[in-house]
Structure formats: structure tokens, C-alpha cells
Amino acid sequence: MNLLDQYGNEIKHNKPVLNEIAIQAVHSRFSSYPSNGLTPERLAKILREADQGNMLRQAELFEEMEEKNCHLGCVLGTRKLAPCGLDWEILPASSSVEDKKNADEAKEFIEYIENWEDGILNIMDAVGKGWSVNEIMWEIVGKQVWCKSVKWWHQKDFTFITPEGLHVLDVPHLITDENPVYGEELLPNKFIFHRHLARSGATSRGGLLRPCTYMYLFVNYDVKDWVIFNSLYSVPMRVGKYNSASGKEEKDALKRALHALGVDAAAMISDSTIIELLEAKNRGDAQAFQSLADYCERAMSKVVLGHTGSAESTAGKLGGEQEAKDVRQDLIEYDAKALAKTIKFQLLKPWITYNKGPDVGVPKFKFRYEPQEDQEKIAKVYGTLVKDVGFGGIPVAHIHERFGIPIAKAGEATVQPSQSFPLPGSGPTLPSDKAGSIGSGADMTVANKIALPTSSTVQFTPVQQSIEKLKITTFAQSDDAMIGMLKQTVDIIMGASSYEEALAHLAVAYDAMDETDLAELLAQACFSAQIAGRIDSTP
Length: 539
Fold this sequence. Notes:
- 48% of the residues lie in helices and 9% in strands.
- By secondary structure, the protein is mainly alpha-helical.
- A three-stranded antiparallel sheet has the order 3-2-6. Strands 1-9 form a two-stranded antiparallel sheet.
- Strand 2 and strand 3 (144-153) form a beta hairpin.
- Helix 2 (56-68) crosses helix 3 and helix 7 (209-233) runs antiparallel to helix 9 (287-305).
- It is extended, with a radius of gyration of 41 Å.
- The N and C termini lie far apart (97 Å).
- The relative contact order is 0.08.
């Protein structure tokens, strides 16, 4: 039997199906609300039906569990939303130019989907229910196939029943009016079927809500009894007394007054009747109800989040509040990897096949699930390696990738480090015009290493600019004073036969060195700078 779409057209597998396939049937628009009057016997029967492939009542029960239990809905929402908040990227299938181009186009394809963020959440519906099915709404724009949106479908619209009845299906069939029992196979490249394996075994038993069903049932019993307990012990017993001569009208009025006192706390009666409020001396122990509710919530938190922080966190406790918000890291990684695999093979692969061909490599979809790192500490490590250790083997491209910094384009303005001015002698080279006088062949002028900051990096006031010029002039004039001292030092070192001999001769020559010219030059420079500063600070 050929598979037909909603308009009766035959569906072909070699091109995208643009029409919607999973049309909601009349029987799926209404729910049987299996949680109403739920008992252990009914719950066991619902789970056995799901084990045999009939997902109707289990799917409806799971939906109600999320709605009616606030704690379960919260922790399950946290688990499902964890991958939704992660950044993602699309990597090429290989290093070829064609695959890199396809990866860029795949990113545009994903961003084209109207409800992509909602689509990820809908796919993650498999976390609680074991599996999810979403229909891909293809459309053709120009000559390219695109995905307009991703539509979620309720699990009760599918079945795992086989005609033989010996086993259940691994992939569900879509229930249709033509085949309401065994359903029709899902059309390839039209649906995203995501399976969440909380444990090995049948798909219908893999959801996290499955082990939470009995905890949900126990909480229901507990809360009902707790409400009855409060109604008995929190409100005083109201007793009305009437004399034997009272008629039916007076008795009815007294009865209405008793009921009114429980709601309105006001009543009007005759003076021949009496109302007494009796308080229970033994109020019972309400802690048992609280303990059972806490136990069930902790159990559900362990199943869904991997810890009990959401049920046991204490305000102000170190790490407690953060733990209550987070999903365990290994669970985030598992969910992200499984979701990325489904997106690659059930969304990107059909798109590549339709637009590029069946033999083209499929781009890789990847979530950035790695925990956030302290970028400041990492930057200090790199700084230590480069500055202190002198390690020069770090590629610039690696730094850009490590810190997520885009590479600047040609001619693009970039952030510049603050200008630094080396002290005399700190630079590795000095000007060549004095090299001959020393005889070492080295550049020894420090003035050649000093440059005024450019306007793109540092902005100076006129007074500051004059001080900068004074500094450079002083460094330039210090060459003559320094050359004599440096030449004598170099001659001693070159003429010594050992380190000890050079050290001894330098100690003797140090006292004889004449630094008068250098000291006078520095004193004049300091005096000039001080005067300029005083003038600039004068109001």
C-alpha cells in the first residue's frame, strides 16, 4: 500500500515531502486523563500496556505528571533546557574546500528554521518520555531545499505494536485512520525520531518519567491526606445546641450558621441557640506528610538531575544554591552528544542529500558543552609561558581559537596595548653610529629605542607631550656620558681571562668611573620635569 499525504497524493522518497503528513486525528484531540483516580493497580496496568507497545495512556499520564507536579515539572524542564542554552557550531566533514563551504551553508540552513530553539526543546521531550517525533516541514526556495519549521507530535499518536505480537518495535509507527492499530512506518527524511536511553532495553521504557511514576503516585496520596489532616486539625470543630422547644426553622437556621462559620466566620442565630468551638487537644503529627513528600521529591531529583540539590539546597550554603540549578555535567554531555548525532543524521543529512547529492560528506553538528573556564587564569598561564619562560611555540591562530577572538581583517582597526617606554640600557640594541667607539659591533644608543606614542594609542596634553620630548632628548644626550663608562667596562671584560678576573677588575674600576656628566644631565632633566608639572597643576 502506497503512503499518501493529507491530500491523497502518493509520497515519493527521492524528493522532499512538502505537505504535512502527521495530521491530528479526531481520537487524538481528547485525553482520557489517566491520572484522575490513579491507583497502584491502574498505574501497573498502564505501564504494562506501554510494555506491549500501546503508548496511549502512558503518554497521556506522562503529560499530566509534568503539569500537575510542580517539582517534577521544574527539574525535568531544567534537564531538557540544559542543551537548549548551549552554543553550537557546525564543523566540515573534512578539510576540503567543498566540505567547508557546505558547513557554512549548513549553518545558514539551521538559522533559517523559524522555531529552531523551540525545535530543540521539542526534540528533548524524549528525555522524560523516552522518545520524541518531530516532523520536518520542508520547503523549496529558488532551487534549494530548506526547512521552514519543526513540528512536535504527541507520543500518543504513535504505536510500537507489531502484528505478530511477539515483540515491540524499535521505531514507532504513525497511527492513521487507515491503520489505527499497527500504524504506518515513518517516512524517511520527513521525521526526526530522537531516542533517549536512560537505560538499555525497549524504547517505550527508556524515559526518565517512567521511574518517577510511583513517586508521583505516592505524592498524590500524601498531599490528599495532608489536606484532609489540615481540614480536621487546623479548623476548630463547630457544635450547635438548641433546646427541645426549637422548631424546624430554628434548627435549619442553626445548621446554616454552623456552615457559615467555617467559611465566612460570621453567622446570625437566635438567643435560644448556642454555638461552641471545640479545639482538638491532640493535633497529630504533620511531619510524616512533609517527610514523605520530601523523600519523593529527592528521589525524582536524583532520577532527572543526578543529584538532590533541587530538593535539599539551603539558602546561603556554599555551593548549595548553584547545585540546585545545575544538571550534572556528565548528563549534559550525554544529552548534547545524543542530540547532536540526531540532528546530523536526521536533519542535516537529508538536507545535504536533497541539495548536494547522496555522496557528499555531512557536516558535523556540535554543542559546546564544556564547562566554562576562568579566562583570566588561562591568560595568565599563557603570559607566564611567553614572558617568563620564553616559550615561543604558541601559534597566534591557537590564541584566537582558545579565547574566541576573531582574526582581524586587513585594514581593520584593532585594540592596541598601552605604550611602554624602556629604561636606558634595557633594550637589546643601541645605535650603530657609536658601535665603532666601543669595538663590540653592538648598537648601544638607547635613544634609538624610544618612540613617541602614536595618537591611536595614547592621547597627551601639551604639557605631557613636552615632558615626553624632554625624556627622549635626555636619553639622546646621555649617549656621550654613557659611552666612556661602557667602553671601559667592555674593555675590562674582553681583556679578562676568566669570570673571576673580570669581576675583580670591574670592582676596582667602578670606584674610578666618572659619572659626573651623567648625574648632572639627569638632575637637569628631573628639575625641568618638576617645573613643568608644577606649571600644569597651577589653577
